[in-house]
Amino acid sequence: MAQSEQPWQDEARNLMRGVGGAAIIGIPLMYTREVWEIATTFGRQEIFLLVFWGSFVCFGFSLFSGFRKDSGVAAAAKDAVESIAIGVLL
After folding, report:
1. Other Cβ atoms closer than 10 A to 58
2. Are 71 and 3 in contact (CB under 8 A)?
3. Distances (CA, A) of 20 to 25, 33, 43, 57, 66
4. DSSP 8-state secondary structure symbol assigned to residue 66
5. Per-residue pLDDT tens for 37-83?
6. pTM higher than 0.85 for the full model?
7. What is the spatial distance between Cα 37 and Cα 83, in angstroms, rounded to a whole number?
8. Is the N or C terminus of the chain more exposed, i.e. has fewer CB atoms within 10 Å?
9. Is residue 1 predicted with pLDDT exceeding 60?
10. Cα(22)–Cα(62) distance, rounded to whole angstroms?
11. Alpha-helix runs per DSSP H in 1-90
12. How far, CA to CA in Å, does 17 sit from each of 10, 36, 49, 78, 89?
């Protein structure tokens, strides 16, 4: 794989692609009344399980369509961790 002459610009572009995907998928869900009503009934264990299984879903999405050009399980795991971090920050 050829090294880019502008790695910081590539990284910024990749992260903005991740933020865009998170915004398109996640923000509409945050503003639905049903999600907030259901969330008030969850206990700690249910929230942990939701995050746990959600991380596997995120890994699956990253494995098949990650926001970087890298491929493979290690790159998908890295994309999944960064995607979850972006979601926490947003």
Report:
1. 20
2. no
3. 9, 23, 30, 18, 13
4. -
5. 888 898 999 988 988 888 888 888 888 876 677 778 888 888 888 87
6. no
7. 25
8. N
9. no
10. 12
11. 7-30, 33-39, 44-65, 73-89
12. 11, 27, 27, 15, 15
Q: What is the pLDDT of residue 4?
A: 60
Structure tokens, 59: 């890994």
Q: In which region does residue 9 sit, left (phi positive, over 0), alpha (psi from -120 to 50) or beta (all else)?
A: alpha
Name the nearest CA neighbour of 79 among 89, 90, 88, 64: 64
Burial class of 18 by CB neighbour count within 10 A (0 to 12, 13 to 18, 19+):
buried
pLDDT of amino acid 45: 93
Tokens 């998928």, residue?
Answer: 25
Residue 6 has pLDDT above 90, yes or no: no
- What is residue 42's three-state secondary structure? coil
How far, in Å, CA of 78 to CA of 23, rounded? 19
